[in-house]
């Protein structure tokens, strides 16, 4: 990968890779010149402090984060777009904390029942949001739990799973063909959220996903920690069915289930990969009793707007997003129970706040308006962005693009950038032109099996048709060995991701964050000046929603 030396003046844009006219508008350069990394550092340090107790959704620390971001938006002079003239958009969430005394027991056709240990062997939550749920139902192995007509794949073909517990694998059916389940890249069918939704649509009594570190792209500790505390769910619409037990089991427990059913997990996994696989009812029952504390949550998105300069076009907007929440207080690790979420995602929230200041301090305005949206509940299933997608302060059809920031790398500048999903949109030529001019190489996703596109808030907005993607640093760090970026990624994923050790570090280097902010500013400004609107490339899964 070619490295490019970048020289920074009063703004961060230098024609390092190309000559000729700059594709970056003067107004965007002016905004970027106001972006101050040390202000972003200060915001991040506060948002990730122990005082905010991990910014749990609807918790005290989460509310402090919301009020803090709202105050920064107000001081920057943004127009409030929330409820009742405020910067806060209330998100109607229900908090659910599953009791550690909840039980799941495997009942084989012969031999003693096998009780499972909460958090160690399984996690489960009641998506119907009841305080108590009792389940006694047969177990059905449904492969990957996927019904995808466009790929001629239906794990449920001919099976009635209503009232039964489903056992399924995480991720998609394996493929090397990009036209079949995305090849090596995970599609939405591989995400746990899809599998829970499909179980609800089919009236299942429960669903248990088999965890595998390689297939999930994270270890069991992430599943455990993410489900150890209070969960947050949007209120279920009247009459809509939600699966009463949605959870995970370890690969070891799945192996024991398979053995109890007279087979083995490897055989089941192999069958699931085979085209034409159909759901298999196993000679095993699941008995479960889930108890939980349930109550409304006081959680909000924070949203403010800088009005555009063109009276005829300022009702259309460019949207910038980042989530402000994390996991709050959870299971102690080495005596620390505060999940500070410094990288994930105090970094993105702090970048969003500083970007808002930079736009507001610049004397120039793009033709269309710019909206800054800090969402809640991302760690609980993209809840805040899901709600905004359903109840937007600016209609989806008038939102030209969403540029999302989630987990900013803070180890210096990279000569490459990751823009997963940008290639699916009509603005892809603009994105390519700007990134090349800035000296970036657009990196392909080094971990497509992780399904990153479906794991952050831009996905919620894509689902309602808004061309959306995240802006992330790559892995080739300027002045560092080639292996540095991948080593830092692995270190973060194994030692800090969704763990209390994701804490602020005084040694962090914010130069890369400034450059990523500048990239988003340039793309946003260019789109704000477009004649006509934006969309998805023909045939994309979100094209229909945009139309």
Structural description of this entry:
The protein is of the alpha/beta class. The chain has a domain of 199 residues: Glucose Oxidase, domain 1. The chain has a 15-stranded mixed β-sheet that branches. The protein has a three-stranded mixed β-sheet with strand order 20-19-22, with helices on one face. The longest helix is centred in the middle third of the chain and has 20 residues.
Question: How is the secondary structure organized here?
Answer:
Elements: H1 26-33, H2 37-47, H3 60-76, E1 79-80, E2 88-98, E3 103-107, E4 114-115, E5 122-125, E6 132-141, E7 147-148, E8 153-154, E9 165-169, H4 192-201, E10 206-210, H5 213-216, H6 220-226, E11 231-234, E12 246-249, H7 251-260, H8 265-273, E13 280-306, E14 317-323, E15 328-333, E16 336-339, H9 342-361, E17 369-375, H10 383-390, E18 399-404, E19 416-418, H11 428-437, E20 441-443, H12 458-462, E21 468-470, E22 472-473, H13 484-495, H14 511-528, H15 543-546
Parallel strand pairs: 6-9, 9-10, 10-12, 14-17, 14-18, 18-21, 19-20
Antiparallel strand pairs: 1-13, 2-11, 2-13, 3-4, 3-13, 5-12, 6-13, 7-8, 13-17, 15-16, 19-22
Helix pairs in contact: 1-14, 2-9, 3-9, 11-14
Using brief descriptors, characterize the structure shown:
alpha/beta, three-stranded mixed sheet, 547 residues, disordered N terminus, 15-stranded mixed sheet, Glucose Oxidase, domain 1
Short description:
The longest helix has 20 residues, at 342-361.
Could you say what the CATH topology of the domain at 96-294 is called? Glucose Oxidase, domain 1
Secondary-structure-derived class: alpha/beta
Q: Could you tell me the mean pLDDT?
A: 93
Q: Low-confidence parts, pLDDT < 50 over ≥5 residues?
A: 1-17
Tally of alpha and pi helices: 15
How helical, in percent, are the residues?
A: 25-40%
Per CATH, the architecture of the domain at 96-294 is: 3-Layer(bba) Sandwich
The proportion of residues in beta strands is 15-25%
The shape is: globular
Strand segment count:
22
> What is the gyration radius calculated from CA atoms?
23 Å
The CATH class assignment of the domain at 96-294 is: Alpha Beta
Our measurement of the CA-to-CA distance between the termini, rounded to an integer number of angstroms, reads: 39 Å
The biggest beta sheet reads: 15 strands, mixed
């Amino acid at each position: 990968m070619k490295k490019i030396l970048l020289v920074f003046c009063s703004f961060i844009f230098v024609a390092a890779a190309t000559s000729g006219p700059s594709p970056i508008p003067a107004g965007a350069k002016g905004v970027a010149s106001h972006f101050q990394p040390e202000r972003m550092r200060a915001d991040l340090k506060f948002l990730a402090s122990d005082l905010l107790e991990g910014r749990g959704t609807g918790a005290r620390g989460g509310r402090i984060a919301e009020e803090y971001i709202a105050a920064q938006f107000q001081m920057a002079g943004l127009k409030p777009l929330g409820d009742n003239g405020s910067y806060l958009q209330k998100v109607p969430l229900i908090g659910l904390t599953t009791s550690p005394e909840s039980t799941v027991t495997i009942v084989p056709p012969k031999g003693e029942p096998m009780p499972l240990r909460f958090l160690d062997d399984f996690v489960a939550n009641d998506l119907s949001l009841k305080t108590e749920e009792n389940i006694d139902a047969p177990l059905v192995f449904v492969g990957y739990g996927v019904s995808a007509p466009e790929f001629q794949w239906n794990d449920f073909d001919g099976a009635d799973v209503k009232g039964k517990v489903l056992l399924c694998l995480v991720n998609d059916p394996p493929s090397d063909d990009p036209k079949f389940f995305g090849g090596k890249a995970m599609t939405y069918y591989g995400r746990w959220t899809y599998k829970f939704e499909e179980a609800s649509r089919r009236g299942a009594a429960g669903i248990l996903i088999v965890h595998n570190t390689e297939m999930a792209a994270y270890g069991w500790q992430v599943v455990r920690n993410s489900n150890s505390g209070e969960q947050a769910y949007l209120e279920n619409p009247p009459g809509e069915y939600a699966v009463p037990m949605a959870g995970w089991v370890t690969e070891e427990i799945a192996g024991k289930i398979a053995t109890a059913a007279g087979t083995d997990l490897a055989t089941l996994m192999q069958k699931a990969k085979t085209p034409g696989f159909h759901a298999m009812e196993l000679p095993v029952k699941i008995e479960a009793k889930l108890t939980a504390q349930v109550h409304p949550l006081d959680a909000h998105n924070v949203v403010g707007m800088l009005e555009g300069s063109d009276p005829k076009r300022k009702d259309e907007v460019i949207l910038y997003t980042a989530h402000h929440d994390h996991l709050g207080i959870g299971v102690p690790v080495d005596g620390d129970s505060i999940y500070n979420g410094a990288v994930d995602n105090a970094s993105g929230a702090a970048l969003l706040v500083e970007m808002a200041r930079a736009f507001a301090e610049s004397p120039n305005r793009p033709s269309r308006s710019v909206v800054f949206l800090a969402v809640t509940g991302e760690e609980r299933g993209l809840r805040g962005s899901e709600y905004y997608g359903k109840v937007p302060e600016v209609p989806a059809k008038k939102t030209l693009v969403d540029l999302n920031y989630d987990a900013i790398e803070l180890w210096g500048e990279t000569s490459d950038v990751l823009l997963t999903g940008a290639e699916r949109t009509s603005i892809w030529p603009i994105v390519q032109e700007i990134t090349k001019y800035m000296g970036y190489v657009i990196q392909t996703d080094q971990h497509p099996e992780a399904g990153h596109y479906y794991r952050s808030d831009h996905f919620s907005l894509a689902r309602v048709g808004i061309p959306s993607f995240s802006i992330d640093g790559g892995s080739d760090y300027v002045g560092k060995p080639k292996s540095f970026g991948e080593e830092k990624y692995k270190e973060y994923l194994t030692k800090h991701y969704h763990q209390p050790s994701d804490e602020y570090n005084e040694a962090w280097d914010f130069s890369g964050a400034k450059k990523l902010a500048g990239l988003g500013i340039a793309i946003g400004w260019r789109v704000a000046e477009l004649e006509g609107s934006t969309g998805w490339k023909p045939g994309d899964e979100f094209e229909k929603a945009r139309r």
